Amino acid sequence: MAETNEKASSMSEHVESGGKFDSPVDSGSNTSLEYDEATVKRIKRKVDLRLCLVVSLMYTVCQIDRTNLGNAVVAGMGKDIDLTGNHYSTMVVTFFPFYTLFQPPMTVIARKFGPRYFIGGITVAWGIVMAALGLVSDWRALVGLRCVLGLLEAGFFPSCVFLIGTWYVRHETAKRLALFYLVGSALSGFGGILAYGLQQMEGIQGKAGWRWIFIMEGVLTVLMGLVGLTFIVDFPEDARRTRWFLTDREIDIMIDRVEKDRGDAHVTPFNLKEYLGFVADWKAWLFAFNFGMTAVVIYAVAYFLPIVLREGLEFSVANAQTLTAPCYVFGAVLGLAESWVSDKYKTRGSIIIINSLVEIIGVCVLGFAANNSVRFFGAFILVGSCLANLPACLTYQSNNITGQWRRAFGSALIVGSGGVGGVIGSLVFRNQDKPHYRPGLYTCLVAAGLTIVSVSITTIVMARKNALQKRSGLVLEGTPGFRYTL
């Protein structure tokens, strides 16, 4: 057993370094494959452009659509829609139950129908819903449309994470997940600037500026959905349907690399017991908890930072709308740099802990400093660290699960927990707490602290199991030679 494990581990390390191979691939042929690092890099570059770049651009509109309520409020939505009491918080929070509950079935549907048609189709659908938000006049109608929006968006993020994971070996995923999430988040940070520009359409066709924010961003989303329908790649074993993208040999090489890395390149028939079996793994819940607590901070920032800047720091409307953009750009740069370090040195948990510590510092500076410029610096590092932490949490989980259906459920579970975090984050900054918003700040502090505790527990336990695997050949995750990435 130990000899088998060492062989599998050695093979995994070899594939990550881009070495040559001579092994059969189950692609309809019994011939052997030989390929070198240059060939692998060329194929990965193709997949990066067709997969990671396209879904990151689509995620831009996803982020803008999900969080533009704050910009609409600053643009004057309260003049036409009754936002008294808890109406605004209700509009924000009703998105998340649907977003959370529909995560697991959505990954199964994406697997069945193919990611290109599924992801592109739901993007077009929620773009239509987004445009409809600009046409209603009652807050209850807005609540209903936000529920539909949550249901449709439930299929996007976990399906993209699952799809990216099927194309790359474990120690290549951090950069790709970071590209997917952080490029989208950085560009969506300019949503405030976009909203401010669309707000200037005030009076056109007799519609208020805040309505044009929803309408025009909905049109943009529909266009991006059509781009997805055209360009998103399918799962590796289905990619032969688009022969102009990759040759059969190139597809075989990518499948072979994943098979050697973690042994789950080939999808098995759907089995509900196997799919839900990951529920019994305690690590699954801590992985999800890490992501959920990070999401608390991210959504609190996304929904309320423009309002906090306007009312708490007394920024002008223009500054409150536009000065969030530099924060998101910083988060993208930080996250991409960390993902490079994370892949190079094969470290995951330490990145999450460092980001969580910076989140704590950012919350303290934003909430308790006396000078507004210093407080904005706190917002700057808070946004940057929590954005960088989300792809780190995704990679930490993705690297430590084997089996396609377990990975599919894991993607749904972790992103679903992000929906729970969104519910919390959307409720803690209450109107009655302005201008200091202490309960919201305290919640963000607690969430960052709990993330540190959770990651420390899983990392320590997995490190001990890795040591046992090295000494005695213990089989981890049902895969000989597999070791956790800490």
From TrEMBL:
Membrane topology: Multi-pass membrane protein
Annotated region (Disordered), positions in chain: 1-31
Superkingdom of origin organism: Eukaryota
A GO cellular-component term linked to this record: membrane
UniProt keyword annotations, A-Z: Membrane, Transmembrane, Transmembrane helix, Transport
Xref: Gene3D superfamilies: MFS general substrate transporter like domains
UniProt subcellular location: Membrane
Domain Major facilitator superfamily (MFS) profile: 51-466
UniProt xrefs under PROSITE patterns: MFS
PANTHER family: MAJOR FACILITATOR SUPERFAMILY (MFS) PROFILE DOMAIN-CONTAINING PROTEIN-RELATED (PTHR43791:SF47), PERMEASE-RELATED (PTHR43791)
Entry's family note: Belongs to the major facilitator superfamily.
Protein name, as recorded: Major facilitator superfamily (MFS) profile domain-containing protein
Natural source organism: Aspergillus nanangensis
